[in-house]
């Protein structure tokens, strides 16, 4: 069974090197849908609390909301970057202080799915991601499933010590 939650993200980007309207800096409202799959936790009768999915995902996604997303070889990048601290993954670098995300590939709906999955795959059992931006949409399903110990009282993931960070339950 699946728990499903959505996020609206505002962002600006451009398709550097692309011939057409998308080559110019422009903005979008994107909608990301995250589907988490697991067995129904009998203690709380749900797969995973949607508000907890939102907390876990938002911790990463907030860096993409109202952000400028540029590819790492975009000539606009040096003009935008100055002295900001970053966090990196293999697919993207984010500068939270200026809401700048630097990607390896052009930021398409497909690219957003790859980045989100890479950032959240170890935190949630993601079954499917869908990202819609304007009239464009992409979706991907994932078969990787991890055994995630969950609290029988509130349904969220236990920490590495087997303790629920929300209610204090101990395994």
Tell me about this structure:
An 8-stranded mixed sheet has the order 4-5-6-3-1-2-7-8. 26% of the residues are buried. It has helices spanning 50-61, 77-80, 109-120; strands spanning 2-13, 26-37, 67-71, 87-88, 92-95, 100-103, 126-133, 136-141. The radius of gyration is 18 Å and the shape is elongated. Helix content is 16%, strand content 31%. A hairpin with a 4-residue loop joins strand 5 (92-95) and strand 6. It is an alpha+beta fold. The model has no long low-confidence stretch (mean pLDDT 89).
Summarize the structure.
The chain has helices at residues 50-61, 77-80, 109-120, and strands at 2-13, 26-37, 67-71, 87-88, 92-95, 100-103, 126-133, 136-141. By secondary structure, the chain is of the alpha+beta class.
